[in-house]
Amino acid sequence: MKPKNTIVQLKRLIGLRFSDPEVQALIPAFLFPISGGPNDEILITVDYLGEKKTFTPERLVAMILSDLKGIAEADHGAKVTDSVISVPVFFTDAQRRAMLDAASIAGLNVMRLMHETTATALAYGIFKTAEFGEDPHNVVFVDVGASSLQVCVVRFTKAQLKVLATGFDRNLGGSSFDQAMMDHFCEEFKATKKIDIKSNARASLRLRTAVEKMRKILSANPEAPLNIECIMDDVDVSSKMTREKMEELSSELLDRMMEPVKKAMSEAGMIPADVKAVELVGNASRMPFISSQLEAFFGMPCSRTLNASECVARGCALQGAMLSPQFRVRDFEVVDSFPFPVSFSWQADGGEVKDMELFERNNAVPSSKMMTFFRNETFTLQAKYTTPTLLPPNAMTQIGSFDVGPIPSTNSDDGKTKLKVKVRLNLNGLVSVESAQAVEEIEEEVAPAPAPAAAEAPMDTDAPAENGENTAPEDPNGEKPMETDAAAPVPEKKKKVKKIDVPVSSTVGGLPAQVLEQFVNEEFEMALQDRVMEETKERKNAVEEYVYGMRTKVTGALSDFVAPEAAESFVALLNATEDWLYEDGEDETKGVYNAKLEELKAIGDPIELRASEESARPGACALLQTKASAVLAAAAPDAAHEHIDAADLEKVRGEAQAALDWLAEKQGLQAAVGKTQDPVLLSADVDKKLAALERFSTPIMSRPKPKPPAPEPAPEPAKPEAEANGDANGEAAPMEEDGEGAPEAEGAPEAAPKADDLD
Asked: What predicted TM-score, i.e. pTM, was given to this entire model?
């Protein structure tokens, strides 16, 4: 591994500017070269295809995502387009947009940018719904990663998780503890061995790797050794570290670790007694003194229910399944929160700048707010983070600007139009002005509804009597008296709301569309180049593998099938090819490697063929001999084959005998050929001859016998007379019913005619 060409911890650089103090503080810790671009962007120089090239962190992250996409497609066997990408909870708008740009360059559609702590909570809670009752179940998640610390307080109910508060430290993780030990050993070896390890990139990488391994050992053991041979200038170094010494070196880091925890608990309005469990995740969370501090604060042991390294990826996968229509997932609502308060400012008519906080800290995500303005000209809304102290040092508080207008004129008294502006904080943690509408109230005359029908209208009556009966006179025909003095309908005035969409143009972070398209095309071209490089490497490895394998076989298992002179010349050619691979053929093209492999196989394949035929030919010949003899015997004339035409049987016998004669002839020729010569009789030819014989004989020999004619049915005997007229006991046969189903008795009198039937 080349230290200066190995890029790590890109999440700490993406979306930031080169001049940011946080970036400047990180540069000495990185072994790869970092420089600033013309627009203050970060540029990382790498060796790519033998050339020095510079890439932004966005493009390098896109390369990682593209590689992960290829792995997923190869494993899944289908094209991958949609994704859910995790980001730290402390990512700003610029960092989130940079991550979305990287995904676009990689050809991925991001359904959601999900906080790492929220993904962890989802992976934890969706499988524990049976344990959650009506009462809230509060869990604190502490994620100690490689370079950051994140804390999340989550409230679980039966089918929901709600993030109440978050806390974080951007620059506190496992690498911080490694750096503390590395500084200690650098000073120790500088004093004892007189070497400056930090001045050598390779030595620094070796020491950092050893220190990381030591930290993991100290998580389970009280002491760990350090031994590195020839770390630099042919100097060997050795030392040891105890857990107590490591805690002493990391005391300041341990004090910093509890600050985000306490802050998150305070913002959630909880005390340790309100917490049901503390889940500890992250690759650096296995250090005992971290869990001991958390246990001392919460008064309970920390749980390790989740896989510390996979829980974030599992949560993102579950969220992706929830958002995709292709999967059916258990109903489980995820209510996330945003860690930064967001304000909007605008210029009033008098020139005064007004400011309003729309989204407070830990505001639910997604969320929408409506703002009302009275304007007659285009105006600008500025979105910014309210609390700069929550951001990285000297980070941009500005999120973006949104121009609302032109604004249509209305008939208002002051000439100003009422505007409804909708502001949204979406699932990705991005703030935008979603829409704007001009609202105008118009009075319109509306015809009154027609009077109800007379039959449905209530009657005008006198007052009822004391007994409750109506004493009003009624028309003899039952009709109600007609109202003749009713007033004419008067039109009503109603207010109607008229809405007109107002254009909104935005200026936000992220790559311009043209630059993004350029990066997408370049990434596609580089992906093709990488594919060619991989295929070239595979062909080179194939040549190398063939040289080593065939050289061993020719002098061993295949020695009986190649003449000594041919074997000697072939081995010489293999040796020459090996030398060529490590000299002139080190960086050749795919076509050259293919040609070299074909050249070697032209000599080696016949040798392997002779060996394989020597083992496969006897079995194939024996099978053909057996089958042909069996067919010849089965086609002999006998009573069992009387239904088969004699001419067809003769043809079958001829084919079987021809196969036997062919086999005998070929076996005789093969016997005269040595093992070192190409075979005359191939097992494949024998198999073809057997298949042809079976294809010809089987339909004839399996012809079924004709079925004998079916016997004629015997005549049915005549029925006895008693059976036709009734049985001997004098019982009458069943009577037939007429069309209406009523039985008629013999000799019954006719019914009397009905009165309707008489004339």
From this structure: 0.74
